[in-house]
Amino acid sequence: MTTIAVVGSGSWGTALGMVLADNGHDVRMWARRADQIEEMNTKKTNEKYLPEVTLPETMSGFTSLEEAVQPVEVVVLAVPVKAIREETKKLLEVSNRPLTIIHVSKGIEPGTQKRVSEMIEEEANGHANLHSVVVLSGPSHAEEVSRRQPTTVTVSSTNLESAQYAQDLFMNQNFRVYTHSDLVGVELGGALKNIIALVCGVTNGLGYGDNTKAAIMTRGLAEITRMGVKLGADPLTFSGLSGLGDLIVTCTSVHSRNFRAGRLIGQGLSLDDVLEQMGMAVEGVRTTQAAFEMANRFEVEMPITSAIYHVLFNGIKPEDAAGELMGRVKKHEEEKLTD
Ligand SMILES: NC(=O)C1=CN([C@@H]2O[C@H](COP(=O)(O)OP(=O)(O)OC[C@H]3O[C@@H](n4cnc5c(N)ncnc54)[C@H](OP(=O)(O)O)[C@@H]3O)[C@@H](O)[C@H]2O)C=CC1
Ligand SMILES: O=C(CO)COP(=O)(O)O
């Protein structure tokens, strides 16, 4: 039995806390809202994020980050990407133990174009108590994990032993965990598929059907792979769980917030209205901005990312963006990814 803190008690943090509790670990959940912690401790529910789910007795909630992390050497960091730097900083300040941080967030930071593990390492600069950073990613909606439905994910780290440690913590009969050595590819796949899911949602909102969805998913994977290879990832990683696997689940599942947000945009709502209506992390929006910057910076062609960027941030109508994509110059489908 290991004592583990989960920082962030939204859908994903809560579902992963349940997996750890099922595995016999003592799980200390942190949330910033006192009413939520009160609910989790007394009613054993988290109605806002995972309705109709009962939390295990071995999950306890804390509003004090210090209290939550004080006895632990492993933290699952489960906040939206925009909160990663702040929570990492606070976490390292209040802990006096060597920490393994398992991050589970899927996105890239606009402005810096950093992956989440890079943001964590940057914030830890000067702190002796960061032992290692692991990413956990793959096709895994919280709603299904919390109902103990068979799910597979991948963990990756520059420190293989830490990835194996995370694998052992999470692995059970319903939750199968693979290790992977390509940290860059695993993080990029998880982040960039959210953009493609947004676009699939937009096409759905426009009334387009399955041909369009298949086109966006396939050509989306092509541009994710193109960018990944440019940044040093193994192209094969994008055919794995954290690439194609997560792309499939996010572009096709009713649970996907990115897909649902995209659908509302396709139906004509403004981005602000959509984000307010969703009330949960829609990571694809900020990651679209970051990926658009990366495409320009590294001169990588990402036409689908570019189209949704102009829809989200420049007022281009979704149907006009679709027309632009279809009217691009003739192309050969196969491409050479490396020089
Ligand atoms: N949901 C899923 O199925 C999956 C999600 N992920 C990834 O996990 C990450 C978290 O997503 P998810 O749990 O779904 O998001 P939710 O929207 O369900 O929950 C977000 C959680 O983070 C907290 N939070 C939001 N902003 C801040 C902040 N600035 N500082 C501290 N805490 C904050 C929220 O607290 P409050 O309630 O107080 O606002 C809430 O507890 C995302 O990167 C997502 O892509 C990955 C795989 C699956
Ligand atoms: O990453 C996810 C499933 O693997 C969750 O996707 P959404 O954030 O779109 O719900």
From TrEMBL:
Q: Does the keyword Ubl conjugation apply?
A: no
User: What molecular function does GO assign, one term?
Assistant: glycerol-3-phosphate dehydrogenase [NAD(P)+] activity
Query: What does the record give as the reaction this protein catalyses?
Result: sn-glycerol 3-phosphate + NADP(+) = dihydroxyacetone phosphate + NADPH + H(+); sn-glycerol 3-phosphate + NAD(+) = dihydroxyacetone phosphate + NADH + H(+)
| Record: residues binding NADPH | S11, W12, R32, R33, Y49, K106, A142, R257, E283
Q: EC number(s) for this protein?
A: 1.1.1.94
Q: Where is the active site?
A: K193 (proton acceptor)
Binding residue positions for sn-glycerol 3-phosphate: K106, G138, S140, K193, D246, S256, R257, N258
Query: What InterPro entries does the entry give?
Result: 6-PGluconate_DH-like_C_sf, 6PGD_dom2, G3P_DH_NAD-dep, G3P_DH_NAD-dep_C, G3P_DH_NAD-dep_N, NAD(P)-bd_dom_sf
Keyword list (alphabetical) reads: Cytoplasm, Lipid biosynthesis, Lipid metabolism, NAD, NADP, Nucleotide-binding, Oxidoreductase, Phospholipid biosynthesis, Phospholipid metabolism
- Function field: Catalyzes the reduction of the glycolytic intermediate dihydroxyacetone phosphate (DHAP) to sn-glycerol 3-phosphate (G3P), the key precursor for phospholipid synthesis.
Recorded hits in PANTHER family, A to Z, give:
GLYCEROL-3-PHOSPHATE DEHYDROGENASE, GLYCEROL-3-PHOSPHATE DEHYDROGENASE [NAD(+)] 2, CHLOROPLASTIC
Q: HAMAP family of this UniProt entry?
A: NAD_Glyc3P_dehydrog
Tell me what this protein is called. Glycerol-3-phosphate dehydrogenase [NAD(P)+]
UniProt lists the gene as: gpsA
